[in-house]
Amino acid sequence: MMFSYLFFKGCTIPASLPNVEKLTLEVLPEIGINLIESDEFTCCPDPIRLQGVNQYFWMSTAARNITIAEEKKLNIMTLCNGCENTLAIVNHKLKNNPALKKTVNEALKNIGREFKGTIKIRHFLQVLKEDIGLDNLKKMVKTPLTGLKVAGHPGCHLLMPNEILKFDNPVDPEFYDQYIEALGATPVDYLTKTDCCGVSLALAGDKEASNRCVKTKLIDVQLSGAQLISTACPSCFNQFDSGQLIASRDYPQLKEKPIPVLYAVELLALAMGRSFEDIGYNLHRVKIPIEVKVLEETMKKIKTTCVYCGTGCQLWLKTKDGKVVDTKPVMPPEFNPGKGKLCIKGWNVHEFIHHPDRLTDPLIKKENGDWEKVSWEKAINYIAIRFKHIISENIGNKRVIGCLSSAKCTNEENYVMQKFARAVLKTNNIDHCARLCHSPTVVGLGAAFGSGAMTNSIDEITDAKVIFVIGSNTNEQHPLIGARILKALKKGTKLIVADPRTIPLSELAEDNQGIAIKHRPGTDVALLNGIMNVIIQEKLYDEKFIQQYCENFNAFKEEIQKMTLEKASNITGVPRKTIIQAARIIGRADTTYLIYSMGITQHTTGVDNVKSTANLQMLCGNVGKWATGVNPLRGQNNVQGACDMGALSNVFSGYQSVTDKEIQKKFAREWKIEAGEMDDRIGLTVVEMSDAAYQGDLKALYVMGENPLMSDPDSNHVRSALQKTFLIVQDIFMTSTAELAKVVLPAASFAEKEGTFTSTERRVQMVRKAIEPVGNSKLDWQIIALLAREMGYSGLNYQHASEILDEINRTTPIYGGITWERLQKNEAGLQWPCPDISHSGTIYLHQDGKFPRGKGYFHPISFKEPAELPSKEYPFILSTGRTLWHFHTGTMSRRSKTLNERVPEGYVEISKVDAEKLQINNKEMIKVATRRGEIEIKAKITHKVSEGLIFIPFHFKEAAANVLTNAALDPIAKIPEYKVCAARIEKIV
């Protein structure tokens, strides 16, 4: 069936994009659109370009064009957003306003024309949506653009939220992405999708602001992992194609890797079999090769859960000839916390899986330091003999061997590792990297509420009236959660961001009438207490909630009143006015959704910081209801699950205390051991294990999927400690820690496993096997089971990961109803607590004030300074963290070609003021030193850090930030203070 339209070309396309005009006339008939040309049309005209001209003039001109189509009894189709907007608005107004219609027709009468209102105005995309249909278009595509990642830009005119142009959702548009997908390409989401290209600012005479819009948009597209940007507006096209040449002067990365631009019809032409030469690609300003991978129909794909951050994004791993070759997001309507999107790391998650550095065989270090490749039997026997010897030499001492579990491994593997430690080695010396990131969350929220996890869910973010982000660089560390925050802002949510650095969210807050607070590092308690003081003084707190559901309020209130505004301002460096403003926004809001991450936890006062966030939310009644709560964002794919599984020194799975006799008996029965044999004391934490190894008390350390030499503070001390103990490392790559080991065991990656991960929102999701384990590597739980069997214990003889989850269901009440069978059927997974199979899971915790501990507990918290402050010798504060492009110790991300090309080496951020004082140039190699060591690293002069503050990402072993950091611990959670230590900067002479 053919649909006929009168083709309104407009002015811009014939003048600057003649190839698009030609393609349109050639290609659209192939999909059922017959275009009839007319030489009678004039400019539409765009009222923005005719500012100051009488409105009746431009309306009459537009009406004249419409009458041409009326005479031919054809609807109009145009490729230009502006033309469609102008003609459609005039068409609608004249149809619905008789007086206006009469005035315009009086003008048209002079040229022998009359507007009747008998036709429709359609944009090319509207024709596809309403006449052709995307399902039909998909069937007509000749060469699907498989593997091509496209960022769509619908343009402002098509998204206007008015009654005339109801084309798509102006806040969260979908159609252009659906169009891209119908052509076989993959739509890529990015933060500024609905923002203006900047052309209106240019027309208004503000070229500088216009260029900023182009730069911001293209940088976001670049960061999203898209290969190109596509638009349906000629003005937007020219902004991106020509404008990025200007923007690249200020942003070298755009110059090094420009973003190609394709018009919507050019994209269609490619999918209909045209080449890049055919579509006139050589006429574009930005000309770089774009690879369109036409993947075979026989390619298999497996749905699984991403292995990077804790958001829990669902993705497809595409395989060919037994290898993972591509990644694609799971798209709606199928469930995906990322809403059909992936971040730059997720898009490239397949790149490290088959890296040549993968460990494929067990290795034992010889006396001369060389590695010997050995059989599994020999490696396991070697370890078992050493373990047995250490245990026999230290009878009664349950602290001589330690185990480190892993947030990269599945729930089932973490459960097996802690079971091995407790049932086989008879020790509670079991820990993992949560100790270094969110142990204060488990302790602090557990003390306040009775449960130490994210109280609410990701989906609730967009319904919050206020979002308060403190100590979380969300857009870079959890990009898809950052996208939810942006969506909330577009719905009118107020954003408050508190961070010692200027992060992307800070700028978003300022741009959207929110508040960006830049407080002194380590002063979170003072800031939060200052905010709460204002809320109490102005009686903005929820007295009814406090009386019904909380306790210890009076003692808390007495402590808060000590933190006067003046005192809070002096400690934090934040103006009193800003503290008051933040307090009033939070106190007056119906719902405030509080987000934090390691900027809150990685302090010697980490537990105090977490308790203070709980205090604030209880004070305002923002616990136990939708779109509120205290929401710590977990930084790794299964750090929540590893905690849930008991990979901690003080709890069994489900946070059941290791010192509780009845709990000990329960696990002893399940594990078929004697309760009296079990360790009844809290074990050593990860940092304490290093100290014990250094002192000669910890004789052996078994490390699964962790890299403590890179991740632990004071790396020189850690190195010395690890060199003194019998070290076994089980990993997918030869990490810095593995290089020090006596035995290295090759493990399977996430793409080679079956099991479950638990995301930051307590959501348990399936991990599915896409390929066989690489080389002779084995699943982590299978390796542990081999070792247990060699040591005489048969309680780990599972046949499949599902059997391990069955045992978790029996021993772990919060996971009681999260069975393998239910997860296989429920693509959205299940959120704990889920006590039995009749329970549907828990979206948000503490509903109706039902706290696991009974009532919410207000903790009176006083401000304490960090363990180490600047001095004359060390005048700077050093803080560490992550970048968008890399992940933790870089084991995976630095083996991704795409990611490592973007940020191949470490750097230290320095303020412009400090750089000028020290005569340091950008990218100059300098020395950074603390009381523990020194590194050489490139300087990065930036506005992100204030005077006196420096920041180093910890991904790079060549300039390892943790050589510098302080091992001072929070007294309760035992987390090191990564966010504050004293440092100095020196030029290299």
Keywords:
989 residues; Glutathione S-transferase Yfyf (Class Pi), Chain A, domain 2; Rossmann fold; 5 domains; 7-stranded mixed β-sheet; 6-stranded mixed β-sheet
Overview in brief:
The protein is of the alpha/beta class and 989 residues long. It is 36% helix and 16% strand.
Biggest β-sheet: count, sense, barrel?
7 strands, mixed
Number of strands: 38
Oligomer: single chain
Give the averaged pLDDT, no decimals.
Answer: 91
* Beta content: 15-25%
* CATH class division of the largest domain: Alpha Beta
C-alpha Rg (nearest Å): 31 Å
What name is given to the CATH topology of the largest domain?
Rossmann fold
Helix content: 25-40%
How would you sum up the global shape?
globular
| Helix run count | 37
Give the strand order of the largest sheet, numbering strands 1, 2, ... along the chain.
Answer: 13-12-26-25-24-14-15
Protein structure class: alpha/beta
CATH architecture classification of the largest domain: 3-Layer(aba) Sandwich
Separation of the first and last Cα atoms: 77 Å
Report on the architecture of this protein:
It is a single chain. The termini are far apart. The strands form 10 sheets. Strands 13-12-26-25-24-14-15 form a 7-stranded mixed sheet, with helices on both faces. It has a 6-stranded mixed sheet with strand order 32-34-33-38-31-35. A 5-stranded parallel sheet has the order 18-17-16-20-21, with helices on both faces. The chain folds into 5 domains: 1-132, Glutathione S-transferase Yfyf (Class Pi), Chain A, domain 2 (Up-down Bundle), CATH 1.20.1050; 134-294, Rossmann fold (3-Layer(aba) Sandwich); 363-437 and 638-834, Rossmann fold (3-Layer(aba) Sandwich), CATH 3.40.50; 439-632, 3-Layer(aba) Sandwich (Dimethylsulfoxide Reductase, domain 2), CATH 3.40.228; 876-987, Barwin-like endoglucanases. The longest helix is centred in the first third of the chain and has 18 residues, at 55-72. It is globular, with a radius of gyration of 31 Å. The mean pLDDT is 91. The chain is α/β, with parallel strands linked by helices.
